[in-house]
């Protein structure tokens, strides 16, 4: 029995799949293996004792890396899968939108597909009648609803499928990685809808890799890692934990060859000295080291890039810090990014020669990431949560050592 304020209760849910380890067409071999205790499969545990509650009116985010168990959890909540242990209880009608266009028939018209999809979601013809105009208006397909779906463009099909899901009048809406559907204009329309839904008091569960969306829409979130709940609570804290978990402290180099096909610089390493999660008042510090194989002058060029907007926030590529000769070079760099908040920054480093030719660069996949968040904001001061924009004036300090 659910409490009055609980929309979804996930109660100590565990799930595993059986992966075959051998195949045989022989009944005799199968029976012999069975008597020997050889099962012919191994268990892959996808979820382990997942436990949380979604209150009515929550915009609840579920985040985690690929393979962490997020989509399996959604399918259990949607009653597509049954758990091996535990249970899921939902109060009210649940509308699940796990994959775009599932259940649509290209040989039927747009109108027929709306009614068929509505029936699959558990709505009566009368209930779909009441929702139909809202669905068509949101999809902006008024002139095409009597055409067969196979004659729709892919963008039109996406708009119709998404509109059926979000305009269906269910008590709980489940969405799996669908915030980037449609063209730019339709995405803006979806953004406005989600902001309205957040204020409406309707319950929504969202699975996404977009931490900006988690912070923007959600009031609660959970981080799933290796089938376990790693963090749950405030979306800012959960999103920042996810960002930190997906970074490595050391960035290895990617070599660049000169015209004579010789590698001049190798073994570039970038090591973050400060914490990955800091406040605007704390400095950012990192150590850069690399090995020069020729008697040339080199210097370090670096930038801090806003990951969500893909723009430079800070850079230092001055030729003032040239170093001469071969051998191991090591430098510590410290800078301040005051007034920044709610921002994830990617540190990008290249080594260049006196002619500004790039000799090597830190690989993007292992580049350190810094998350900056104020810790003095009161919960109702929404404007203070915004991140500052624009390029920060260079203020870094270089310290060289051998």
Summarize the structure.
The protein has 402 residues and is an alpha+beta fold. Helices cover 23% and strands 35% of the residues.
Main attributes of the structure:
6-stranded mixed β-sheet; 8 helices; single chain; Coagulation Factor XIII, Chain A, domain 1; 402 residues; 21 strands; alpha+beta; Rossmann fold; 7-stranded mixed β-sheet; ABC-type transporter activity
The overall pLDDT average reads 82
User: Would you tell me which CATH topology of the largest domain applies?
Assistant: Rossmann fold
CATH architecture of the largest domain: 3-Layer(aba) Sandwich
Amino-to-carboxy terminus distance = 68 Å
CATH class of the largest domain: Alpha Beta
Number of domains: 2
Descriptive overview:
The protein is built from 8 helices and 21 strands. It is α+β, with helices and mostly antiparallel strands. The chain has 2 domains: 6-245, P-loop containing nucleotide triphosphate hydrolases (Rossmann fold, 3-Layer(aba) Sandwich), CATH 3.40.50.300; 250-401, Coagulation Factor XIII, Chain A, domain 1 (Distorted Sandwich), CATH 2.70.50. Strand 6, helix 6 and strand 7 form a beta-alpha-beta unit. Helix 3 (110-120) crosses helix 4 (125-139), helix 4 (125-139) crosses helix 5 and helix 7 (211-217) runs antiparallel to helix 8 (235-245). The longest helix is centred in the middle third of the chain and has 17 residues, at 184-200. The model is unreliable at 381-387 (pLDDT under 50).
């Amino acid at each position: 029995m659910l409490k009055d304020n609980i929309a979804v209760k996930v109660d100590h849910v565990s799930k595993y799949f059986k992966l075959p380890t051998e195949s045989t067409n022989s009944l005799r071999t199968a029976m012999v293996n069975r008597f020997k205790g050889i099962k012919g499969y191994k268990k892959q545990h996808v979820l382990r004792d997942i436990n949380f509650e979604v209150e009515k009116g929550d915009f609840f985010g579920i985040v985690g890396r690929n393979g962490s168990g997020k989509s399996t959890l959604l399918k259990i909540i949607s009653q597509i899968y049954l758990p091996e242990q535990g249970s899921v209880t939902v109060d009210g009608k649940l509308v699940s939108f796990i994959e775009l266009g599932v259940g649509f028939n290209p040989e039927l018209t747009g109108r027929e597909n709306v009614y068929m999809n509505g029936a699959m979601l558990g709505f009566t013809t009368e209930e779909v009648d009441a929702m139909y105009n809202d669905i068509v208006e949101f999809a902006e397909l008024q002139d095409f609803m009597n055409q067969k779906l196979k004659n729709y463009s892919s963008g039109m099909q996406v708009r119709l499928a998404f509109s059926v899901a979000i305009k269906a009048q269910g008590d709980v809406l489940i969405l799996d990685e669908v915030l980037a559907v449609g063209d730019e204009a339709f995405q803006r329309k979806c953004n406005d809808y989600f902001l309205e839904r957040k204020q409406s008091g309707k319950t929504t569960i969202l699975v996404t890799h977009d931490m900006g969306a988690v912070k923007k829409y959600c009031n609660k979130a959970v981080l799933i890692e290796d089938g376990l709940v790693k963090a749950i609570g405030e979306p800012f804290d959960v999103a920042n934990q996810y960002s930190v978990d997906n970074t490595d402290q050391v960035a290895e180099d990617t070599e660049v060859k000169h015209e004579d096909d010789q590698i001049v610089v190798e073994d570039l390493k970038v090591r973050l000295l400060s914490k990955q999660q800091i406040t605007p008042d704390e400095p950012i510090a990192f150590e850069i080291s690399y090995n020069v194989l020729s008697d040339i002058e080199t210097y370090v060029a670096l930038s801090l890039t806003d990951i969500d907007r893909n723009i430079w926030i800070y850079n230092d590529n001055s030729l003032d810090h040239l170093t001469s000769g071969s051998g191991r070079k090591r430098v510590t760099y410290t800078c301040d990014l005051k007034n920044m908040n709610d921002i994830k920054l990617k540190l990008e480093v290249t080594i260049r020669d006196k002619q500004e030719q790039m000799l090597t660069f830190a690989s993007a996949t292992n580049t350190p990431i810094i998350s900056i968040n104020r810790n003095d904001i009161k919960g109702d001061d929404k404007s203070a949560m915004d991140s500052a924009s624009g390029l920060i004036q260079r203020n870094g300090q270089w310290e060289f050592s051998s």
